[in-house]
Amino acid sequence: MATSVRFWRAALWGFLTFLLFCISFRYAFHAFIGMLIARSAQSSWILPGPLLPALIGAVFSLLLVLIWTFACWKFQFRREPPPSRPRFASHKGNAGLLVRLMLLVVFLAMGSSFPYSSHIITTCRCCSFTGDAACRKYQDVLPASGSYNFSTPDGWNGAVYPAGQLGKLWIGNAWLDKFSFEQVDVERTRFGWPLRAITRDAIPRRSGWHIVIEIWLNVSLFFLFLGWLCVQAAIATAKGWVRRPRLSLSEAKQKYEL
Question: What is the pLDDT of residue 217?
Fold first, then answer.
C-alpha cells in the first residue's frame, strides 16, 4: 500500500481546505463584528481583528477535512474485516496529507491576520477610508445609533462609536454633522499579506473603531494557496528526482561510448 502523498491528491484536498477556510473565516469574522456591535455597551474596549476568526476558520476547516478523509477511508474498506484493513494514517499517505493541510491552514491564518502596518493619522470620521462608505450610504452623516454593520460591492463595513450627534458644523458652503466631520486621531492598522485587505481605525482613549474588509481578501488568500501549491509541486519534483533509477559506472561508460 502506497504511503506517500501524490501531488494531485494534495492539490485536490488542499483546494477543498482552502475553500472551507475562506468560507468559515469570513463567516466567523462577520459574526465576531456583529457580536461586538451588539454588545458594544459591555465590550467597547475590545477591538475587532482577524486573528481569532482566522484561528476558528483554520480549526473548523481542518476538522471537516479530517472527518471527510476518515469517512472516505471507512467507506472504501467497509466490507473488509478490521484485521485486514490498512491503517488510516498509512493509507495513501493520509498522515502526511493531514500534516500538509495543517501547514496550509496555518499559512492562511497567519497571512490573513498579519498586521502589516500600524500608525496614527489625523482625519475626520467621514473623510477616512473606513468611514467613507457609511457616510455615502447615510448621506454625509454617521447613524445616531452609534454603530453600523453592512456590506457593499467593495466589501464589508462595521463600526462602533459614541452614540448621538454634536450638532452642525459649517464647512465650505454647507452645514455638516459636527460629529461626523470633526478631526480626530485614529490608530490605523492594516492586516493581511500579500494584500492588505483589512483596515481598522481605532480612536485612542475613546470607545470607537471602524473596520473595512475588502473584496480582495479572498484574492490574497488564493495567492497564499498558490504559494503552498508551488511548495507541494517542488516536493513532488524532488521526490521524483530522488527515486529516478541511477546508472552504474559501467552502464554510464557504455552509454558514453555509444
Answer: 93
199 and 210 belong to one structural domain: yes
At 1 the pLDDT is: 44
User: Do residues 102 and 222 both lie within one domain?
Assistant: yes
Same domain, 156 and 180: yes
Q: Whole domain around residue 147: which residue ranges?
A: 115-215
- Establish how many alpha carbons lie within 13 A of residue 190's alpha carbon, considering only the half-sphere containing its beta carbon: 14
pLDDT along the chain (258 residues), means of 10: 72 95 95 89 78 95 92 74 66 82 95 86 86 87 87 90 68 70 87 92 82 93 95 86 62 52
The answer to whether 170 and 107 are in contact (CB under 8 A) is no
Q: Are residues 125 and 9 in the same domain?
A: no
pTM: 0.83
Q: Same domain, yes or no, for 58 and 45?
A: yes
Number of domains forming the structure of the chain: 2
Following DSSP, what letter does each residue of 154-211 receive, concatenated?
TEEEEEE---S---EEEETTEEEEHHHHSEEEEEEEEE-SSS--EEEEE-TTSS-EEE
Give the Cα separation of 258 and 255 in Å (integer).
5
Same domain? For 152 and 258 the reply is no
pLDDT digits over 84-122, tens only?
667 766 666 788 888 999 999 999 999 999 887 788 888
pLDDT at 112: 92
The CA-based angle 106-112-116, given to 5 degrees, is: 120
Angle at 123 between CA 117 and CA 128, to 5 degrees: 70
Residue 6: exposure state from Cβ atoms within 10 A (0-12, 13-18, ≥19): middle
Could you tell me how far CA 142 lies from the centroid of its own chain?
A: 29
Q: Tell whether the torsion through CA atoms of 214, 216, 220 and 221 is positive or negative.
A: positive
